[in-house]
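Sample A.
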Amino acid sequence: MIKSPPTIDPHVLDRLARSPHKEKLAEYLALLKPLDDQGRYLPFDDLRYRWAPGLDTTLCWALVKKARAAQYVSLLPVGEPTRWGQFVLTPLAHKTLSAVDRQATTAALEYMTHHIGETAHFSYLLNDLIEDEAISSSQLEGAATTTQVAKDMLKRNRLPRSSDERMVIGNYKMMLLAWEKRDEPLSLGLIRQLHGVGVEGIDDGQYSPGQFRSNDQVVVQDAQGNTVHTPPPASGLGARLERLSNWINQAQNDPLHGDYVHPLIRAIALHFAIGYEHPFRDGNGRVARALFYWLMFKHDFSAFRYIAISILLRNAPVKYGRSYLYSESDGLDLTYFIDYQCSVILRAVTEFTAAYRNSLEFAKGFNHWLEESGLFKQLSDKQRTLVQVAKSGMAKEFTAVNVKENLDCSYNTAASTLNGLVELKVFEKRKMGREWVFFLRDAANIQAEWK
């Protein structure tokens, strides 16, 4: 459990002028800043161990809060009675906003795909990445399925065999819907629709797909069963979500306007608000993350289709949960949640860009090998793409169905392309169930064939 910050007496700073505090006035005044000496926006739970021995903890916290309050920006209303979330734009947030603006826009994505040029295997990479968020978001919620099994299910379009696999399928459909609905305003209908698509068929009795909760029995618990968040009452939930939708739909897109808030900050705030209001009996986290993506898509950050935030959240679920709790326990200071999300997003965007660069470098090197070996002249454009994908490790198994989808060709063309690679002794194939599955042969064997 986290340590909640102390309640601040409005007259606590008067104590600075009195003994014994005035003897340490310089030490106290050094704390009158929102960040620590390393530029971090830490919660009381961490700061209380970092203040010098002998300093009054409540007074130290009052000074930090005074400095933060001077920089607060009111963000969005939540709860009953209404409370306003607020935040401080930290150096980490600035860095993340810069990376997102440079590397995650539709224009940046179009530049990447254009720069890749003939090396169409990058499209295969993108199709692979678009599945990652659906899978990792499900695993974050407890789905007990491996990433490889889940990818196999999605690529082969096979029916789910368990509730965990149905959860993956639901999240995948929810992410597709978020993309399809990116031009629509936020509404109660859209929130319900996302939930319905995401959880329908898993356990309808548990989830009540597309229906807002009607009682106050829903709470959020930690791994030990402790209640860590009690959502606002179900009464008035619809009105509060309408208010939230109105805030999201307001025109705040002009950087020259006084109330401008960057879309990434608004998307993170929306993520928080859905988690805070907890409108459904279950599945709230998945809907919150889907709405984050929906808002990024709406504001032309198309690269987020391929940037899986939940992979990193899944790897540190305790930090993810604590960032919620720090914000809630500190008067809805959303900076903790925003900063944690920014740290995850910055890493995810950086990894996405690195994947593109690695893909480009590999493609250049592989094309050189193809030219030198003489194999290049024997391959069609589609065959070159499949060999590049297989050599890069982005996909290890190929079927006529997934080649048809990824290369946008007919089933017969896909099958002919794959069988041609077998005839050239580049691929091998074997029957798995009712379909033929194709694999790249060992590199040494391929090169031996083409010496």
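Sample B.
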Amino acid sequence: MGKLNPKQVENLSEPGTHEDGEGLRLAVKPSGRKSWVLRFQIGGKRREMGIGSYPEVSLKEARLVAAGHRKQLANGIDPMAARDAQREAERESQRAMEAQRVNFQSLAIDYHTAHGSTWSEKWRKGWLRKLELYAFPTIGKRSVSDIETEDILRVLQPIWSTKTRTADEVRGQIEQVLDAAKARNLRKGDNPARWRGHLDNLLSRAEKKRARKREHFAAMKWRDVPALMGTLAAHDARAAVAARLMIFTGARAQMIRLAAWGEFDLEVGVWSLPAGRMKMRKAFDIPLAQPVVNMLKELQPIDDSPFLFPGQGKTGAIHANAVRNLLHSLGHDDITRHGFRSSFRDWANERTHYPREVCELALAHDERDQTEAAYSRSDFLEKRRGLMAEWAQFVDTQPTNNVIRAAFKGA
């Protein structure tokens, strides 16, 4: 039988702890606030567990709750761990209920609203229009928590062969929206719209390659690149640094996106990419000009991420479209990321005397045949270092002076 009675509990006002028995006690604060506490021991450790405030929880109710927890202890169950697990299950149930209420179309529109203000007008309209035409009719009303690979295929397969480039853009947009759903705890697991290691095994890679060949990568004229670099240098987005690194080095977008701190030796000025990161599956070193080294030394790691450009998706790296979206927001929806490699190559042709093989190798294009490569094993690193230093000097000068200097520089 307990030591306290309802009248005592009601009238107790002296600050302190008042025992009821078997570990149950009433704690009275100096403010007069009263709460129930159960003291128990498990695994050799003494614990205290709050079981509610008075008068919301009466003496009778507190005793019943305490009795239930003592029964758990008798069965070897930690009441606090069990309570936490129950609360987590309730939160998970609530998240699941919320996820069921959020369909793909509404979340896509939310995503468009949240990010579209930084895009160009053309890209903003086109982004939503493609989903309206190809995705919403199939998965628009489907809960974001329920969308699986088969749903993605039902969207893409009808247009993959005839409109491959559009289909791949739609796939990327769906991937973005589902990444946002995961960030909001509306879904779990891998993104069913991801390409590498997933949809590339289910949809024709050949079609995608042919579409890329048909797509003549729109390139910025090399004389205009310094002005863009000046704009990017003044931009505080991390994607702007990624874009500058892409232009400085002539690297492909995927090489930039997954660039890891461990690949860079800033003292020597070399970016060493392992074979697995290269299109031709051959390790490759990129010489870094001094402006690049300076830029990277100012870039601080974020949250212990191994990547220069961290993100929220499965890879932990910046989103695949981050640089493209930034360029569009700056009004450059008429150029592509890959096109900067063409800008560099045109500049090298017109403004330098470096041999063709050096210029091509600067873009990781090794055009030597097997016999030639067997006798000429050099990667022309030092010659490429000179070439990339000249390119960096050109693009990293003030925009108004670049055209003047380029015009008077000997071919």
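B remarks: Confidence is low (pLDDT under 50) at residues 368-377, 398-411. The chain has three domains: 6-99, 102-214, 222-408.
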